[in-house]
Each structure stands twice: as C-alpha cells, then as structure tokens.
Amino acid sequence: xxxxQPQRTKKQGTRKRVSISGKYMNNDKIxxxxxxxxxxxxxxxxNSKSILIIEDQTxxxxxxxxxxxxxxxxxxxxxxxxxxxxxxxxxxPDLIITDLFLPSITGFDLIYMFRxxxxxxxxxxxxxxxxxxxxxxTECINLGATDYMIKPASIxxxxxxxxxxxxx
Length: 168
Fold this sequence. Notes:
Oligomer: single chain
Number of strands: 9
CATH topology: Rossmann fold
Strand order of the largest sheet: 6-5-7-8-9
Helix content: 25-40%
Radius of gyration: 16 Å
Number of domains: 1
Structural class: alpha/beta
C-alpha cells in the first residue's frame, strides 16, 4: 500500500513523499521525492516544468533521472517508444529526451510522431544516441530534433541543455 504526504518547501512548491509496495527511497540517496517502479521513474515536485526521458537501458535511464532530478522538475520515463508516446500524450512534458534505437517505435519515428502532433510542435527534443553517424544526426535534426548528443553523453552538458531549454 502506498502513501502520499505533502510537505511545503520554500520556493519549490509542494513536495510529495510517495511509497509503492512498502518501498520508500530515502530523499538523501536519490533525490527529493523520487520513486521508481518497473514501468516509469519520476520525481514528484510540483514545478511547472516536466521532462520525459525515453531510454531502454535501465541503468542509463536511472542515471539521467538521478542527475536531472536535482533541477527540481517533474521527470517521467519510458523504456520503449510506444509507452513513451502514450505517456507524452497524457502528461504533456515540456522537454523530451530520447534514445534512437528503442523497442517497438524507434527514436526517428517518435520524433516524426511528436512533430506531427499539434501538442508537441514546439516541445524541444534532445536525442542521445550511441550513433555518431552523420546520416542519423542529420535525419534527427531534419525530423525536428532540437539537439543531438552522442553517448556516453556528459551529464553536465545534458543538465546545461535542459536548463537552457526549460529556462531554469
């Protein structure tokens, strides 16, 4: 059984502590209010900004979540393209970070789908991929990606790009 306990914090909105199936992750270990389950990882801080991280490799996805959670934004995540698009339609994130080579729907197809959906026409999309092939980079930018980073991506540079794109 889970619980939710709102707490007020100066200039950070309402912070909610959440537990799923009796597992509560200590704020000091991971980041304020973050929970993880097998489907999605996210931080629950009521801030007007949110991002969606789409990455099929659990360790990489969790690394992005841990570091970006320090920015005090709401983070949603998905491990495949189909789940990601459904989650994006529901949550309407302010920024999307995606890998290219995903199960079910590729990052290329996701960019195309987002850019052809009125809700996401101006949503920034950062692609982070192990591919350094010029054709892949060019195709992503032509499809509408805002930026492209090659893995292993610098967490510091990713954090700077997120701050800039979300005006933090």
